[in-house]
Amino acid sequence: MKLFHAAIFTIGVASSAALAQDVVVVGEVHDNPAHHRVQAEIVREVAPKALVFEMLTSGQADAITPDNRGDPVALAKALDWANSGWPDFSMYYPIIAAAPEARIYGAQVPRDVARAAFGDGIAASFSGDAETYGLTAPLPEAQQSAREAMQMVAHCDALPQEMLPGMVAIQRLRDAELAHAVVQAMQDTGGPVVLITGNGHARKDWGAPSYLERVAPDLELRVIGQSEDDAPLAGEYDEIRPAPAVEREDPCAAFKGSG
Questions:
Q1: What ranges in 105-163 are assigned the alpha helix state H?
Q2: Residue ranges of region Disordered (predicted)?
Q3: Going edge to edge, which strands form the sheet with 50-53?
Q4: Which pLDDT tens digit goes with each residue over 106-163?
Q5: Which domains does the chain have, with CATH numbers?
Q6: Interhelix angle 89-97/33-46, nearest 10 degrees
């Protein structure tokens, strides 16, 4: 992948100067409907030429056609959303509907690719130039340690210690694939582009935006995270928008003793 500069792109006209960027990254907590409503509002405001979704593979994005795009039931079926593992499609469809002419890109790392990356390494599994995106170099020691600790907490302290480096590597692969899809969308459409992803991938310090800063430093980029009940949000963002938390069962309940 060659480096490129935002000067060759035409910046789309948004209704808000604050969102008049080449790329707007909007994070989420996946199962929070309020976060998805905000995403749909931002997409409507930006009127992007392209939407990039963490939740879709490139193959799923190719299944979106003019015939099924306007019908949420038909589109969910075409995407096999019921077997995707993501929250109900009714949360995500309004985001797509908010930009009816935007080209849709999928940036999810397929499960078989993620499994292969554990054995072959993320550089071999990346769809772009791994060296350009920094995937051939190790993370700084402090960041590696911090990210391994986060993976352990996210998995209820139940992961074998030896799995943690691989889990961090897969997250790096996912971040890089998101950035790579945004780069492709900018090249194809000229932008603006909106990236829909989880807060962890949206963070500026080590998520997808950090890869965009590396490979396309002249892009005008705005990163919006979304918190719950004003709780602190880990990482760096240009803006954080709060929303009420949703009620959830304790995901770690099965690992806790009864005493």
A1: 111-120, 122-125, 141-154
A2: 227-259
A3: 103-106, 50-53, 193-196, 23-26, 221-228, 239-243
A4: 999 999 999 999 889 999 999 999 999 999 999 999 999 999 999 999 999 988 999 9
A5: 17-134+174-244 (3.40.50.11550)
A6: 10
